[in-house]
């Protein structure tokens, strides 16, 4: 459970209808196996001890006695096992028959969660045999012990404060207000569901969206276990469709029409971080639901779930294309509104032949098209200086030409030399002053040109640069509207590639592909031999794919750096070793804190994803915050 990961399992065992002993043996076999695999929460299907499809056999005393006896043996069997087990079973109590999930842990029966909503439509007629559970849970006498009986029981882990588990049964999650909603509002972070949901055409997709949706709505982990092969096929077929979801995303799902066990790890701390940030999610101040402790061993969970190395970039190509189109549209619509509101006659974009300025120019062209303004009023300004290479210069010029915008070339080398001479700085001292003088001169040119043409300056800096502070304060850091502020560097590349892939213009496509092949560089130092770029950003601050990974989990979920390191080693296995990842993670943490002052006075710009650093919206942080506690475990 280190870092908040809790291993869970869904088990659909082989069963026989009404063969309680056979079912019990298979349940115990899987309890032993999941315990050996160190799963802490294990969920079996609805009425698994008897079989869901017993129908009127549920009214037979022989069956109900056999179930009671089998449960006692299961409880005894669990004494030396690790985990909290939920087992579906029928329970006769005070002359009524209930559909329940028994919670078992280390030789103890902790309680019976009752099914609240009994389906009595279509192929279901549970009301023929069962009674809906009570509105509120209460203690009952069961086999000489006091145990809880009812809905919304909260099972609390003795070694992990935030691990609170609650159960519901099948139809409960299909109801307008599932019991899990109330349980989550009293702190439940993991919901389990013992289910028997048959398969018909299209139902699996709906079931998946339902479980993902409920896990997102109540910000929880959801462990859904379904009945499968072995149930009667007199009228229906059960496909054993098991799902483990976390806050709207499926972590694991079983293949249907075969009985199986699936595992994954739910991140409890990630869920709590989401709940803390979500002001519409409010934990109830008044605790009215029963809280029942259970015991598990605290240990480091071996992770089987995977974390995408590029969390900002969808892995599926069709999804990626849709995402790129949507982001470009958001960027262009944001700029269009600003242009129309300010009645700007033009925009100025500093173009370098690099990725960020290319994206900004593409977005500007799209925005002007949306606003039905001729593209000639986009002023693409190239400002050659000490570090400009032939390749980037030519690409900048070609890009402007192929997009039909106005190209202006304003060399700044002499202006920078005069400035350096004025402040008494040698041109041979190629330090931060030398570099920033160029960046600020470029910004001055763009600003004054915008004034001259009654226009506005379009910022080109991206989200990754803002996180690292890789921008010259009051240089490229400043603009009148920053179209790229919500786009991380790894995604900038895919946006430009998407534009290149989809444009019908061959020459534009060709120059965009060359821009994509050009190393990322501010080009503030003179080029090397053969006019090659001498200053490569990723050699200085580190690989952007690592920094974007760090940024996503640091800002989006509030992960501690040692937790980020742990999952980064998994995601980048075979690409970067631990030493390299740790080096750049320390760089990220140091720069993220040290460079907040630049983010505190950012220009406006559109948010496009769940991670953003606007000081007016998503990220408010003091510029003088101390970073010490973030380095303690590194």
Tell me briefly what this model is:
The protein has 19 helices and 20 strands. The chain has 634 residues and is of the alpha/beta class.
How would you describe the overall organization of this protein?
The longest helix has 26 residues, at 317-342. This protein has helices at 20-36, 61-77, 179-185, 203-217, 268-277, 317-342, 355-370, 390-403, 413-422, 432-452, 463-468, 489-502, 506-516, 537-541, 544-556, 561-571, 578-594, 596-599, 628-631; strands at residues 5-11, 41-43, 84-93, 96-105, 108-114, 138-142, 145-150, 154-157, 164-169, 190-195, 221-226, 243-246, 249-253, 261-267, 291-294, 346-350, 378-382, 406-409, 455-459, 481-482. The mean pLDDT is 95. It is elongated and about 100 Å long. The chain is an alpha/beta fold. Helices cover 38% and strands 18% of the residues. The chain folds into two domains: 2-294, Carbon-nitrogen hydrolase (Nitrilase/N-carbamoyl-D-aminoacid amidohydrolase), CATH 3.60.110; 317-538, 3-Layer(aba) Sandwich (Rossmann fold), CATH 3.40.50. The strands form three sheets. An eight-stranded mixed β-sheet has the order 6-7-5-4-3-2-1-14. A seven-stranded mixed β-sheet has the order 13-12-11-10-9-8-15, covered by helices on one side. The protein has a five-stranded parallel β-sheet with strand order 18-17-16-19-20. It has 19 helices and 20 strands.
């Amino acid at each position: 459970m280190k870092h908040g990961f809790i291993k869970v399992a869904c088990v659909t065992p082989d069963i026989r209808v009404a063969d309680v002993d056979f079912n019990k043996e298979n349940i115990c076999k899987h309890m032993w196996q999941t315990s050996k695999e160190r799963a802490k929460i294990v969920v079996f299907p609805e009425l698994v001890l008897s079989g869901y499809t017993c129908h009127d056999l549920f009214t037979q005393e022989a069956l109900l006695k056999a179930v009671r006896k089998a449960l006692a043996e299961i409880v005894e069997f669990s004494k030396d096992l690790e985990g909290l087990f939920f087992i579906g079973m029928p329970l006769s109590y005070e002359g009524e028959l209930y559909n329940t999930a028994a919670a078992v842990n280390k030789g103890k029966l902790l309680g019976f969660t009752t099914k609240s909503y009994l389906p009595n439509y279509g192929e279901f007629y549970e009301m023929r045999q069962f009674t809906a559970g009570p509105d509120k849970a209460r203690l009952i006498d069961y086999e000489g012990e006091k145990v809880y009986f009812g809905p919304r029981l909260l099972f609390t882990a003795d070694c992990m404060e935030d691990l609170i588990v609650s159960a519901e049964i099948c139809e409960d999650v299909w109801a307008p207000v599932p019991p899990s909603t109330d349980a989550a509002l009293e702190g439940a972070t993991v919901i389990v569901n013992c289910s028997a949901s048959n398969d018909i055409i299209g139902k699996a997709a709906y079931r998946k969206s339902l479980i993902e949706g409920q896990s997102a709505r109540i910000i929880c982990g959801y462990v859904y276990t379904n009945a499968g092969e072995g149930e009667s096929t007199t009228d229906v077929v059960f496909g054993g469709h098991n799902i483990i979801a976390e806050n709207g995303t499926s972590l694991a799902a079983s293949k249907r029409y075969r009985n199986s066990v699936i595992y994954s790890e739910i991140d409890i701390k990630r869920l709590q971080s989401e709940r803390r940030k979500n002001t519409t999610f409010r934990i109830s101040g008044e605790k009215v639901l029963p809280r029942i402790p259970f015991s598990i061993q605290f240990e480091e969970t071996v992770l089987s779930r995977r974390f995408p190395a590029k969390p900002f970039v969808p892995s599926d190509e069709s999804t990626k294309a849709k995402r790129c189109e949507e982001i470009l549209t958001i960027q262009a619509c944001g700029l269009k509104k600003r242009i129309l509101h300010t009645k700007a006659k033009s925009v100025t974009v500093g173009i370098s032949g690099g990725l960020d300025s290319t994206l900004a120019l593409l977005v500007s062209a799209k925005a002007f098209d949306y606003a039905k303004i001729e593209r000639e009023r986009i002023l693409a300004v190239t400002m050659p200086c000490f570090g400009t290479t032939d390749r980037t210069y030519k690409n900048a010029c070609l890009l402007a030409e192929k997009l039909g915008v106005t190209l202006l070339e304003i060399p700044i080398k002499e202006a920078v030399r005069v400035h350096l001479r004025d402040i008494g700085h040698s041109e041979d001292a190629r330090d931060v002053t030398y570099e920033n003088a160029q960046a600020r001169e470029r910004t001055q040119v763009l600003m004054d040109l915008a004034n001259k043409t009654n226009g506005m300056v379009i910022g080109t800096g991206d989200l990754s640069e803002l996180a690292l502070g890789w921008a010259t304060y009051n240089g490229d850091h400043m603009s009148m509207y920053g179209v790229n502020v919500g786009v991380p560097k790894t995604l900038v590349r895919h946006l430009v590639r998407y534009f290149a892939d989809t444009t019908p213009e061959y020459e534009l496509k060709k120059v965009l592909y060359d821009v994509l092949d050009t190393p990322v560089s501010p080009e503030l130092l003179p080029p090397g031999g053969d006019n090659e770029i001498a200053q490569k950003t990723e050699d200085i601050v580190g690989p952007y794919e690592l920094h974007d990974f760090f940024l996503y989990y640091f800002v989006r979920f509030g992960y501690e750096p040692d937790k980020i390191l742990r999952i980064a080693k998994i995601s980048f296995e075979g690409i970067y070793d631990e030493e390299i990842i740790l080096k750049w993670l320390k760089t990220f943490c140091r720069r993220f804190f040290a460079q907040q002052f630049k983010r505190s006075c950012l220009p406006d710009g559109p948010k496009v994803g769940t991670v953003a650093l606007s000081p007016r919206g998503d990220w408010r942080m003091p510029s003088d915050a101390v970073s010490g506690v973030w380095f303690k475990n590194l």
